[in-house]
Write a structure and sequence with these properties.
alpha+beta, four-stranded mixed beta sheet, four-stranded antiparallel beta sheet, 23 helices, 12% strand
């Protein structure tokens, strides 16, 4: 039986980078991309056709074993006109060098040499003058270790490698969980974008970049498909939450099978919610891949540049919202069930900010990207001010809210969102330490969600969304409330848990999210790698070492659960999958980061004063009102 490879269509016709393909068609027909995709007045023009063999192949996956797929890709003509955004980096001749029969040229992924001549020049180019992360790292250094791996680490690596998913004979991701005793895996037998980031970081820190590169290219393929839920299609640029590789019998194929890659954009998810965070994580991972491997040629490719712009176009689209933060529904991120995070949740804002800073570095610096880069700078400036000024709480801020006047109708109102002091929960007053604070979970008119959301606060530290003082305050709070936020297993995804009537109303009586379980106050070991990043950045490596030590005592004995239950994380989660891949990968990544902390400055984002000094509003030019940033800037820059 011979295996063929194709991508499972969600509609009769799908698009990728200008190709039209029908389910039964034997050819890829090259269309004019400008008919359905335009950015900043940049128009791509293409000509003629591509042809290929029996089944449609996945364009751009380097080093795939195409022999196993019984196919090749033959270009019948060169691409004559490229968008202005990539024209300076890719010309006709170079583009032919990229795509060849059987895949991409080996030299494009010359990791040890910094990704070829382009990679070398890109590595020396400062993409962000205020970020130490604009530097590169030596990929060879990661392939050696100064110590022998422990028994638990060796077990973890065996488990991580056993979870690898292959497509056309090459690795493209890792399963969400790989428990051999699980008879009903549901969607845990799929490759999730957010989950794979942990695995990708572990592989990259180990010096293994091929699987990450393949993953980035494979998921890029899925981005531009048409997808519908009840005859409605979301915007172009949406990345899938996950995809599943499976074998299906070929009709009339005399017993032959073909591999199909079947993506889920939310049409099969609980609640039918589109994954807002997938595209943000994809951009963040793309930057991380380049920083660690030196393979900057990947991010300079036309299809990659277009993929970045698609995501940005979706995120930066104008709407009715008055805030610079992204407006999303419940269940659109890691917390993928109803948990009262609809609106402007911190997790999405922190990932949005991180992705924008990543995209600013990744986009080609040319005339075609000028307007987009300016839009990114404007949004970064407004978003950083908004989060630092209105999401931060410490004892001083809580006391200020306690004394708020309400129903203020003026441009100079102190209580801009009409927050009622009665919203301050009783637990908060005695919980926040004198030296420390955090960024609240959500902010909307007349509503502040005072719950502590771990991932959002950690990503705020990593990306410098918070001020240096705020970032240090977050770690001070985690240290002071160690028993609540770490306890017997790091780290609480949310604190505190909702109970009784509040749980019934907000979750809809969700039996999986009962108090101190799953997303409602459960403990998630995968958050270790973000915590390690944050601690190393802020000079608190001791906290990361302490947390990893706590996890190391139990994870292997407990068979690497997805999450832990109870107030202090003493029980394995009641519905937790065992051998959860991002639990395994998060532990391994944390161990390697602690072993090589000098890598962290290349991967995080430092403070960018230019963003804070740039006011993008027009109030300063209006006699009607004054910009509130002027008065607050001294605090925001602290």
């Amino acid at each position: 039986m011979k295996a063929y490879c194709r991508i499972l269509m969600t509609t009769q016709t799908s698009y990728f980078f200008g190709f039209t393909r029908t389910n039964k068609c034997q050819h890829l027909v090259l269309n004019n991309l400008s008919n359905f995709r335009k950015f900043n007045n940049s128009i791509f023009s293409f000509n003629k056709h591509f042809s290929h063999c029996k089944k449609s192949s996945v364009l751009g996956l380097k080093d795939f074993n195409w022999k196993n797929c019984n196919k090749s890709v033959v270009f019948s003509s060169r691409i004559k006109h490229l968008s202005a955004s990539v024209e300076s980096n890719v010309n006709d001749k170079n583009f032919e060098d990229i795509y060849l029969h059987g895949g991409l040229k080996k030299k494009e992924r010359n990791l040890e040499e910094g990704g070829g001549e382009k990679g070398k020049s890109r590595k020396n180019e400062s993409k962000d003058d205020n970020s130490s992360s604009s530097k590169g790292t030596s990929f060879d250094v990661l392939k050696t270790s100064n110590r022998e791996e422990t028994k638990i680490e060796k077990e973890a690596w065996d488990l991580l490698r056993s979870s690898v998913v292959n497509y056309c004979g090459s690795p493209v991701g890792t399963l969400a969980a790989n428990d051999p005793g699980d008879k009903q895996p549901l969607n845990y037998d799929q490759v999730f974008i957010r989950d794979f980031v942990s695995s990708a970081l572990a592989f990259l820190l180990k010096g293994e970049g091929e699987i990450v590169r393949n993953f980035l290219l494979h998921t890029l393929q899925l981005q531009s498909w048409e997808k519908t839920v009840d005859c409605y299609s979301p915007g172009q640029g949406l990345m899938p939450a996950s995809f599943k590789v499976r074998s299906v019998r070929v009709d009339g194929g005399n017993g032959s099978f073909q591999e199909v890659s079947d993506p889920d954009f939310g049409e099969s998810a609980i609640g039918r919610v589109a994954p807002v965070d997938s595209g943000l994580w994809w951009i963040i991972l793309l930057r991380t891949y380049g920083k660690i491997t030196g393979d900057y040629a990947l991010q300079e490719r036309v299809d990659i540049q277009t993929g970045i712009k698609l995501i940005l176009h979706l995120c930066l689209a104008d709407g009715f919202d008055m805030f610079p933060s992204l407006l999303v529904t419940d269940g659109s991120c890691m917390i993928d069930r109803r948990m009262g995070i609809h609106g402007h949740p911190l997790e999405i804002q922190a990932l949005f900010y991180t992705a924008l800073r990543s995209a600013k570095e990744l986009l080609a610096k040319d005339e075609g990207s000028k307007n987009l880069v300016q839009a990114i700078n404007n949004r970064l400036s407004a978003l950083s001010f908004h989060i630092r000024e209105y999401y931060w709480v410490d004892m001083k801020k809580i006391n200020e809210i306690y004394r708020y006047k309400t129903e203020e109708y003026s441009q100079d109102a102190t209580n801009k969102f009409n927050i009622y002091p009665e919203q301050i929960p009783k637990w908060l007053v005695d919980w926040v330490p004198e030296k420390g604070g955090y960024l609240i979970g959500n902010l909307q008119p007349a509503h502040m969600d005072f719950r502590f959301f771990m991932l959002g606060n950690l990503m705020a530290i990593i990306s410098s969304l918070g001020t240096p003082k705020q970032n240090q305050g977050i770690l001070n709070l985690i240290e002071a409330k160690w028993n609540d936020l770490v306890g017997n297993m790091p780290l609480k995804i949310i604190y505190p848990a909702m109970k009784n009537e509040e749980w019934r109303i907000i979750t809809g009586s969700d039996p999986k999210n009962t108090a101190w379980s799953y997303h409602n106050g459960g403990s998630w070991p995968t958050l270790l790698w973000q915590f390690t990043f944050a601690c190393i950045k802020m000079g608190r490596t001791d906290l990361a070492e302490k947390a990893v030590s706590v996890a190391e005592k139990r994870l292997s004995l407990d068979q690497w659960p997805e999450y832990y239950d109870s107030r202090h994380g003493r029980f394995i989660g009641k519905q937790a999958r065992l051998y959860q891949t991002w639990t395994i990968a998060g532990f391994l990544a944390s161990k390697m980061l602690l072993e090589k902390p000098d890598l962290v400055p290349y991967l995080i984002w430092e403070e960018d004063p230019e963003l804070l000094e740039t006011c993008v509003c027009v109030l300063s030019k209006s006699s009607r009102s004054k910009c509130s940033r002027t008065a607050a800037r001294s605090q925001v820059l602290m």
